[in-house]
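Hi all, posting the design record for the shared folder.

TITLE: backbone redesign
STEP: 1 of 1
STRUCTURE INPUT:
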């Protein structure tokens, strides 16, 4: 596999960038879905949450940050979205006890960039951004059937601290809530930072 040298930048909201970002999201979101997720539910989620217009709204939202991992020659290879705070969901409230907190809401990398430096660069940038926002912890939800993602997040210092549910179309999905202390130096050593 070719080793890519990514650079991570904040999304600008330029129309061509938003279109490319929506395309990357449409390609990568299905990869994180459990095997039983229906194609129609996945397509509905992509259309209603991951369109270019939705990304324009996300980029404009001062409570969010959209980070892009780009190849040296320019194309988007993956992205992460961070959201300040913890939602009112009681399951998440119980699981995320260190505040202030930032949610790693989305982190997806194109399949051809899996296993290389892209995801590490994106994670490093996301954690650094959360720290700059003053977060004491970063949290995320990951489907309980997505063991590959769970291993990846654990490698970067996240631990399971609870569960929550997530509606994907008409199907109720079950997620683990994983949390990482931003001041945990052992987590940085574990993933080579």
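Okay, here is what came back for every position:
SEQUENCE:
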């Amino acid at each position: 596999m070719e080793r890519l040298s990514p650079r991570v930048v904040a999304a600008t909201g330029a129309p061509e960038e938003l279109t490319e970002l929506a395309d990357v999201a449409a390609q990568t979101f299905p990869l994180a879905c459990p095997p039983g997720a229906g194609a129609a539910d996945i397509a509905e989620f992509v259309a209603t949450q991951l369109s270019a217009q939705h990304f324009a709204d996300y980029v404009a939202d001062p409570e969010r940050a959209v980070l892009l991992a780009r190849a040296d020659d320019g194309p988007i290879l993956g992205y992460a979205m961070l959201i300040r705070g913890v939602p009112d969901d009681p399951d998440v409230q119980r699981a995320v006890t260190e505040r202030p907190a930032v949610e790693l809401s989305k982190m997806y990398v194109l399949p051809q960039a899996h296993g290389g430096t892209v995801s590490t660069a994106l994670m490093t940038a996301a954690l650094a951004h959360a720290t700059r926002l003053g977060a004491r912890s970063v949290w995320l939800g990951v489907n309980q059937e997505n063991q590959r993602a769970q291993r990846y997040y654990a490698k970067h210092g996240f631990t399971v601290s609870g569960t929550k549910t997530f509606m994907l179309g008409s199907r109720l999905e079950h997620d683990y809530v994983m949390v990482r202390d931003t001041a945990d130096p052992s987590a940085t050593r574990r993933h080579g930072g």
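COMMENT: The mean pLDDT is 91.
Let me know if anyone wants the other runs.
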